[in-house]
Every structure is written in structure tokens, then in C-alpha cells.
User: Which sequence fits this backbone?
């Protein structure tokens, strides 16, 4: 294994070729690192900007050995990379985050158990794995969530009675699931942090999020919450990272219900709600991901302007978004991900609005949402 820190001109790899991988590659290239992306899709967003791409499945052993043999270190850009692939790569090069940490985040059953054991509050839940579990289910109204491979509202169903629960579980092909009580929500927030090998933690300001049909629609940072609640969220996220012995960038999503924090889920990677850091902070979540992978010291991020970020989804492309109008606004920062096909719900890009206050940035963002037809 290469000695840390890994300095510019070292070769770094990333499993996953989506937009998160794209921004990691751009951060690495800016500092002079060589990058290789492994993704099954040719001309994927990250592959477009990397030095090289290996086009292969994430479980392809020969491809993984090729990646691990060429790279000093490898990271991942989404949590559903097979843990076995990360374990194989770890025999060949440095891997961060670890397979053990990722495996917790990619299974809701393991994740809920871990969070509960960490002493943090989670929504009441019940594991649904067999027919007998349906008979004892009482968490109505609730949300049935697949234990694995669910994201952006996929693999989830709202259920209000035992009949709807049985039908939803059938629709999910009887896969292991978690039935979670639906809580009255005051707000949804998230904390993005970076943690290094030495245990050093660097936190970004808490962000406030708004979802539409399970997909993040709007992020405002800093969140409009009390300093005490923001501190509590940062402490909880740090506790999670320490308990996992996590190395990398980690996102923790919270509900605020009745004025109390409830941990929703964790993501072992940069996060959609952290995109505002690209424009509003002096170091982005992707800069920090690079630093944790390379074993460099972590600066404490500073937010330089209030920010509000709006996702640009596939339905906005029919017709194409009003680019000229959007870009004529002061403080507007447009990011497109290089995806060629626009589909319903697909994240094609985002636009961030900067202002001296998050409130004014949010007003601009909401005007943008109206233009895009996503203000419902």
C-alpha cells in the first residue's frame, strides 16, 4: 500500500460514474491527480472528465483488479457498490470509506439497528421480512421502505392500514423491508461532514431540505433553525462517523419532529444537499472527499454566502429550461452533469443561488422553481 499522504500525480479511482463521481474527478484533477472511473455505462458523467474509464460491472473481478492495480486509492460515489468489491479492492490499494461502513448504510435494517445502538433517536420502525411480520404491524400511517436499493423515493410506499401494507410488500416482491412510522415533520435537515484517518472531523453548515415525491427539490444553507439544534445535529453526525470509524465524506439526514431531532438515514458519500458547497464555501464536499482519500489534513469549511440550491430534473427538459432567464439572475450558478437523456425524476443538474442571506437566496430559488414547474 502507498504511504500517506498521497500527493498530486498519484492515481485515484472512483467506483461509480454519476455526477458525484464527476465532481470528485474534477476536484482531483484540479490538484493534479490522475483519475480512473469504473462504471458500466460508456460516456458516463464522471467518465467524461476522468483520465480513463474502465467500462465494467461493479462486481467484475478482473476489472476491479485492474482498477486496484493502477490506483493508489479508491473511493465510491454511491452506497450500493457491492461490499465484496470494496473488500477485494482493499487487498490491492487504499479504500475509503471501508466496506464495513458502506455495508451499514446500504441496508436499512442494519442502519436502523446501528443508529439505535448509537443512542440516537430514530422513527419507530418494524422489520418486515416474512408473512408473520405483517400480522404484528401497528405503525400506521407508515412508510414501507425496501431494506436495499431504494433511493430518491424509489422502493417506498405510504401505507395506512394492514391491507395497504400487504399490497405494498407484494409490489416490492416480498423483499426485506422496514416499516417506519410516519412522523409529523417540522423540517428536514442534513449534515455533511468529512472525517480523516486521524479522527479529525470537519463539518459543513447544516442544510435545510425540501423534497417533492421523495426527491430532493430545494436545499437552503445555512438551515433556518436554532443554534442549539444545529449544534445537536452536528454532534449526532459526528458521533455516527466516530462510531463507524468512518473515513471519507458522510451525510446524515434528520427529521425535526415536535422540535426534536430524529435521524432518518446516512449516506457514505457526498450528498445532493451538499452541492451548495461547490459555490458557497471555501472548500467543497468533493474537495474534502479528495483530502480524506489522499490522507491530507482537513480544513474546517467556511460558508462565504447564503445559498439555495434547486435540482434540475428530467421533466424540466420538456421543453428545455429557460436558460437565459435563469442565468440572468445575479448570483445564479448553473451546473449540468453531462447526461444525454432526460427522464422523469432524473437529476440532470442543479442551480445554486448565492446572496448575503440564505433567506434572499431562497427567494430567488423559489422563483426558479416556479419557472421550472416544480413549485408544488
Assistant:
Amino acid at each position: 500500500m502507498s504511504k500517506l499522504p498521497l500527493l498530486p500525480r498519484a492515481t485515484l479511482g472512483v467506483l461509480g460514474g454519476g455526477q458525484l463521481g464527476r465532481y470528485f474527478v474534477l476536484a482531483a484533477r484540479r490538484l493534479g491527480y490522475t483519475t480512473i472511473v469504473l462504471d458500466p455505462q460508456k460516456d458516463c458523467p464522471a467518465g467524461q472528465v476522468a483520465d480513463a474509464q474502465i467500462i465494467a460491472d461493479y462486481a467484475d473481478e478482473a476489472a476491479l483488479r485492474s482498477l486496484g492495480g493502477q490506483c493508489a486509492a479508491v473511493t465510491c460515489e454511491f452506497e450500493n457498490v457491492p461490499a465484496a468489491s470494496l473488500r477485494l479492492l482493499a487487498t490491492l490499494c487504499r479504500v475509503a470509506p471501508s466496506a464495513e461502513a458502506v455495508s451499514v448504510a446500504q441496508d436499512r435494517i442494519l442502519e436502523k439497528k446501528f443508529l439505535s445502538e448509537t443512542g440516537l433517536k430514530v422513527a419507530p420502525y418494524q422489520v418486515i421480512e416474512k408473512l408473520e411480520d405483517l400480522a404484528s404491524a401497528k405503525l400506521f400511517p407508515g412508510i414501507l421502505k425496501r431494506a436495499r436499493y431504494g433511493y430518491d423515493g424509489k422502493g417506498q410506499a405510504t401505507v395506512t392500514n394492514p391491507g395497504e401494507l400487504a399490497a405494498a410488500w407484494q409490489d416490492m416482491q416480498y423483499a426485506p423491508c422496514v416499516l417506519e412510522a410516519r412522523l409529523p415533520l417540522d423540517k428536514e435537515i442534513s449534515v455533511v461532514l468529512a472525517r480523516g484517518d486521524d479522527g479529525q472531523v470537519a463539518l459543513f453548515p447544516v442544510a435545510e431540505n425540501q423534497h417533492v415525491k421523495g426527491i430532493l427539490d430545494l436545499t437552503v444553507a445555512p438551515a433556518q433553525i436554532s443554534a442549539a439544534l444545529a449544534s445537536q445535529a452536528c454532534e449526532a453526525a459526528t458521533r455516527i462517523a466516530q462510531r463507524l470509524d468512518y473515513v471519507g465524506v458522510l451525510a446524515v439526514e434528520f427529521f425535526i419532529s415536535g422540535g426534536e431531532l430524529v435521524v432518518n438515514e446516512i449516506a457514505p458519500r457526498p450528498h445532493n444537499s451538499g452541492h451548495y458547497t461547490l459555490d458557497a464555501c471555501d472548500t467543497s464536499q468533493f474537495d474534502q472527499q479528495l483530502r480524506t482519500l489522499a490522507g491530507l489534513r482537513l480544513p474546517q469549511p467556511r460558508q462565504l454566502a447564503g445559498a439555495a440550491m434547486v435540482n434540475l430534473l428530467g421533466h424540466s427538459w420538456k421543453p428545455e429550461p429557460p436558460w437565459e432567464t435563469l442565468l440572468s439572475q445575479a448570483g445564479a450558478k448553473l451546473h449540468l452533469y453531462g447526461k444525454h437523456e432526460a427522464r422523469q425524476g432524473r437529476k440532470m443538474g442543479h442551480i445554486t443561488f448565492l446572496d448575503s442571506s440564505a433567506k434572499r437566496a431562497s427567494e430567488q430559488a423559489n422563483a426558479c422553481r416556479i419557472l421550472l414547474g416544480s413549485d408544488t
